[in-house]
Write a structure and sequence with these properties.
Layout: E1 2-7, H1 28-35, E2 40-46, E3 82-86, H2 105-111, E4 116-122, H3 124-135, E5 140-149, H4 157-167, E6 171-173
The structure holds zinc ion (ZN).
Length: 180
C-alpha cells in the first residue's frame, strides 16, 4: 500500500512567509495532482510554541494556531486524512514528521497498511530530509523530486540532502512517473 506524506506546506515556508523557501509554492499543484493516486494521504505541520530554542536558529515561524502555520491555501487539505504536529515542545527542532507529538506517524501508517511512503513538501534540506531518513528505517521510501523545494542556506544543500537520502536507501522519483 502506498502512502503520501506532505511535509510542512505551510504559509510561513512559502513566498511571503517568515521563513520562505524560494518557490516553495511551486510544488503545491504537483502535490495536489498526486493526492488522488494514493489511498493514504497524510501531512505534517511545523507547530511551534511562541518560545522555543528552535527560534535561536531560525526566524520565528509556524507558531501554533497562527496564519503562518496554516497550510498554503492552494493545498487540497480536505484530501489530507490526518495531520501530524511536530516541533511542539520548546526544546526540540521537530524536523522529522516522525517526531510528531499528537499522534505516532509510524504506528498510524503501519495500521493503514502502508509499505511504501512517498515524501513531498518543504524543505528538502531540513524536514523533508529528516522525515525521509526516518521513513527509510521502516518503509520503502521515495522522495518526489519535483514535489520538494529547498532552503539552501548554503548553495548545494539541496543536492547534499538528496545524496544523504539516497545513501540511506531512499529512491528518487518524479511525480509523473507515479502510477495510481
Ligand atoms: Zn520549525
Amino acid at each position: 500500500m502506498k502512502g503520501l506524506l506532505v511535509v510542512d506546506v505551510q504559509n510561513d515556508f512559502c513566498p511571503g512567509g517568515s521563513l520562505a523557501v524560494p518557490e516553495g509554492d511551486k510544488i503545491v499543484p504537483v502535490i495536489n495532482g498526486l493526492m488522488d493516486k494514493f489511498p493514504v494521504v497524510v501531512a505534517s505541520k511545523d507547530w511551534h510554541p511562541k518560545q522555543t530554542v528552535h527560534f535561536q536558529k531560525w526566524p520565528v515561524h509556524c507558531v501554533h494556531n497562527s496564519r503562518g502555520a496554516d497550510f498554503h491555501p492552494g493545498i487540497q487539505s480536505t484530501k489530507i486524512e490526518q495531520v501530524f504536529l511536530k516541533g511542539t515542545g520548546n526544546k526540540d527542532d521537530g524536523y522529522s514528521a516522525f517526531e510528531a507529538t499528537n499522534l505516532d506517524l509510524k504506528d498510524y501508517l503501519k495500521k493503514k497498511g502502508v509499505t511504501e511512503l512517498y515524501v513531498t513538501g518543504l524543505a528538502t534540506d531540513y524536514c523533508v530530509r529528516a522525515s525521509a531518513l526516518d521513513a527509510a528505517k521502516i518503509f520503502q521510501t521515495f522522495v518526489v523530486t519535483d514535489a520538494i523545494a529547498a532552503v539552501n542556506v548554503k548553495p548545494g544543500d539541496d543536492k547534499r540532502a538528496l545524496e544523504d537520502m539516497e545513501r540511506a536507501g531512499v529512491k528518487t522519483v518524479l511525480s509523473t512517473d507515479i502510477q495510481k
